[in-house]
Amino acid sequence: MTKSIVCLQHLSSGQQEMIRAAAPDYTLTLGDSRNPDLELLSGAEIIIGWGKGIRDTVLRQDSPLRWVQAWSAGVEKLPLEALKEREILLTNASGVHAEPITAVILSFMLMFTRNMHTAIRNQQSRRWHSDGQESELTGKTVVIAGTGAIGSETARIAKAFRMKTIGVSRSGRPVENFDQVLTTGELKHSVREADFVINTLPLTDETRGLFDAEIFSACKQGAYYINIGRGVTTHTDDLIAALNSGQLAGAGLDVFETEPLPEDHPLWGMEQVIMTPHCAGVTDRYADRVVDIFVENMKAYLESGKPSRNLVDYSRQY
């Protein structure tokens, strides 16, 4: 009996051929995450992506499903407990976003240090003005919460600007391009010397609401906060209060507690805030990178029965 791979995302002909070459004994069928074919999915051993309404079909007791390759780095929207109970292997797309998201983080940092966000507003109003407060990244300290692919790439580029890099992770293990790595329990201590605090954390029970009034009040006066991780890791009201008081000089935000951000939300009108609509990880190279991960994992799966890259630890939720 032919084994089945169903991909719920669009793939180019070249990307399809890469998967078929890596899994010659499997059929590859494309589906639609917005309108999934449940009959097709009911026979899938491997699913690439996920779709609403497929849970009961693919996680039934006699389902042949053995492995899900998520299309995103975050997996909090998937039924993790049910997948764990069925002992389904789950891999994510961690690493796909490192280059484009690092570019967004550095864009925020450069805009704030060079006051480019105010320059754009001045241009729109035909106003020739500088308040003389422009600065630079050289010699500044950046604290990056999350030392995975995005955090590590950000630290690498920050080093090119001769910045001091401090990482914060669950383990506190040393990571290349970080001058120092502290544990999550030391986050409050770490932000005291930061000119920029970067949040790249996934959403887990431990990170939910982690950045709150206590953390923001511990920040150096005039620091900048950047969040490209998950919106729910930040108490928005506490962030706004820190911005209004001047404790924080500004914020670069790609993610929010509520998305889309309501039109009447106060963040829209704050001139010290730069926002992007949860698109920091968007890139025309996204699918290529996910397919590269999947093909590498497929080879390991055929050899050992388990993917080798980005295997999600259900106990950690990432």
UniProtKB/TrEMBL annotation:
Gene3D superfamilies noted in UniProt: NAD(P)-binding Rossmann-like Domain
Per the record, the similarity remark reads: Belongs to the D-isomer specific 2-hydroxyacid dehydrogenase family.
Q: Where is the D-isomer specific 2-hydroxyacid dehydrogenase catalytic domain?
A: 15-311
Q: Does the keyword Cell membrane apply?
A: no
PANTHER family, alphabetized = 2-HACID_DH_C DOMAIN-CONTAINING PROTEIN (PTHR43333), D-ISOMER SPECIFIC 2-HYDROXYACID DEHYDROGENASE NAD-BINDING DOMAIN-CONTAINING PROTEIN (PTHR43333:SF1)
Q: Which organism is it from?
A: Paenibacillus tritici
| Domain D-isomer specific 2-hydroxyacid dehydrogenase NAD-binding intervals | 107-280
Q: Which domain of life is it from?
A: Bacteria
Output the InterPro entries linked to this UniProt entry: D-isomer_2_OHA_DH_cat_dom, D-isomer_DH_NAD-bd, NAD(P)-bd_dom_sf
- The protein's name: D-2-hydroxyacid dehydrogenase
Query: Could you tell me which Pfam families the record lists for this protein?
Result: 2-Hacid_dh (PF00389), 2-Hacid_dh_C (PF02826)
Q: Which lineage is the organism of this entry classified under, starting from the top rank?
A: Bacteria, Bacillati, Bacillota, Bacilli, Bacillales
Q: Please provide the record's keywords in A-Z order.
A: NAD, Oxidoreductase
Keyword Oxidoreductase attached: yes
